Amino acid sequence: MDNSFFRELATAAVKQGASDIHITSGTVPLIRTHGKLEPYLLSSVLTAEKSKEIILGLMNQNQKETFLRELEIDFSINLAGIGRFRANAYFQKGVVSGTFRYIPDKVLSIDDLRLPDVCHAFAKLRQGFVLVTGPTGTGKSTTLAAIIHEINETRQEHIVTIEDPIEFIHENKNSFVTQRELGGDTKSWDNSLRSVLRQDPNVVFIGEMRDPDTMQAAMTVAETGHLVFSTLHTNSAAQSIERIVDSFKTEEQPQVLLQLSMVLEAIVSQRLIPTIDGKRVLATEILIVTPAVRNNIRESKTFQIDNIIQTSGNLGMRLLENSLAEYVNRGMVDKNVALEYAIRPTLLNKLLGGR
User: Is residue 354 predicted with pLDDT exceeding 80?
Assistant: First the structure.
């Protein structure tokens, strides 16, 4: 089916630096730029039939059958000369709708993204478990792609990614990269994670930890001497640890705490914050797992982790509020905006001297 309309829409979105495209009936397509949704005014209001035609026209036959059976699907689109999109098609009020996240062709480096310098250290780890967390749309995949890109360029390893769907494409550099997509290359997370250890990996990227089975598999792969990266939809380092542990049955939690305390190496929690000039900037919270942190995890004292982060800036750690305060002090972010995004607004006020 002709997808010229979506190519036109995608071209316009990419040119204006958009992150997402929304298509549904009853409105013109919407484009999210710097966190704000704006109408694509070169289009008329879409009918239910037109919305369905556009979205189904981007799928292959197997994807169509899965979508019509399951009523939702994740898939990827590669538009020559424009870029890649991670797509989610779904029904709302009986109408076919879709959201499309732009994935740049070029994987940006840690320095290009202005990530904290400590991220270079994560690319040097030989084993362990590193998490990047945050709400949807905060650049978790982009951050991990940059770290994996650095490993790919600087080390001779076998990197295996398991994604739903594949987002950034990693070409073989010094390392050999195997990228597996749910549905196309493997039938389930369970199958792919059970077989990954037989594929002689050094580094494993799990697109998202969705349930206790995925979490357990990630920790087990790390425990067997591999470097594992993954993501969670959580707001802070302490909350991420609690989310993992609370996902398991009560009787399993002591063993999970012990295992997590042994394999976890770092957590990066991030947010994209609106700036005064209408763009967005990345704010991060960094936890480096030291012996003191391991003890706190093992003893289920996650409430003490914020204090460890706050007093360990010399090790590269910082709370989200430290990052927010820095942007406010540099005149990049309005104080009221920073307070809206703060997890600990009282602390942010203190860091800003109560001004």
Answer: no
